[in-house]
Amino acid sequence: MLAALLLGALLLQDAPRTIVVDDRLAADYHLQVGDTVMVAAQPGAAGRAAVVGAIARRSADPSEVARGDYLVRLHLGELQALLDYGDRVDRFAIATTSPAGTTDALRRINAAAFGFRAHRSADVAVETSRTFGVVSRFHRAIGVITIVASAIFLLCIMLLRAEERRRDVAALRLMGMSRRSVALTLVLESALVALLGSLLGVAIGQAASWVVNRHYQGVYRTPLVFSFVTADVVLLAVSLSVVLGVGAGVLAAIRLVRTPLLVLLGR
To answer: What is the pTM of this model?
Structure first.
């Protein structure tokens, strides 16, 4: 009986352990669940057989987007024996049930011993996402410049369009239409053009966002969303477009209705 137990323990010890590999590693080396691989601490070192028990999808972590590392998850005991690291860890995570519990855990851990420090996961995420914050501010600056340039371009277009319709405006005024009605017509036309243009711009932006996500998610093989069109951005873009279009239409209409009829007719 004792010999059987010892034999069973030896067989269990020598039996391959199961590991979890990420989908990037599985795709590059054509691994499937049930395949046997050799796991070692260093390249070329003697390792131990392990069976692929599952293939995990890589999480959408911005800090890991540009890293080409492969992720492998092992049982804690197996990892400790493989690394021969002793009873030490580089970092570990603790889940708390409330913000007060998080504060108390930070105080207790930091006061326990010298040589390590506890941080909130939110603070760690902020530190690792500083690059994305800089990129976000850069994109915001580009957006402001684009809006200013588009406003100037829209004003020029409306003024040129008004100049082309000098004879039409003169004919409407000769037919008895008041200056106010002519100006209102031009302003409504400008608002309609601005609204349609903004809707077309939203559609183009949505399509461009889809192309960007498809491209970079394929390049980095990550589910992270790189670009998305939010409701507040759409509302801001449409509002600015309509306001700028109405303003350009008002300026063009004022210029036309104040011009004498003979000048409008080219006389």
So the answer is: 0.60
pLDDT in tens, the chain (267 residues): 444 433 344 444 556 788 898 888 888 888 888 888 888 888 877 778 888 888 888 777 666 666 677 888 888 878 887 877 777 777 778 888 888 888 888 888 888 877 778 888 777 766 666 766 777 788 778 877 877 777 777 777 777 776 777 777 777 777 777 778 877 887 888 888 888 888 888 889 899 999 998 998 888 777 888 888 888 878 887 888 888 878 878 887 787 777 776 666 665
Backbone angles phi, psi at 110, to 5 degrees: -70, -25
Report the candidate in 100, 49, 108 with the shortest Cα–Cα distance to residue 74: 49
**The two three-digit tokens of residue 143, written as one number:** 């957006």
How far apart CA 207 and CA 219 sit, in angstroms, is 18
Tokens linked to 38? 């050799």
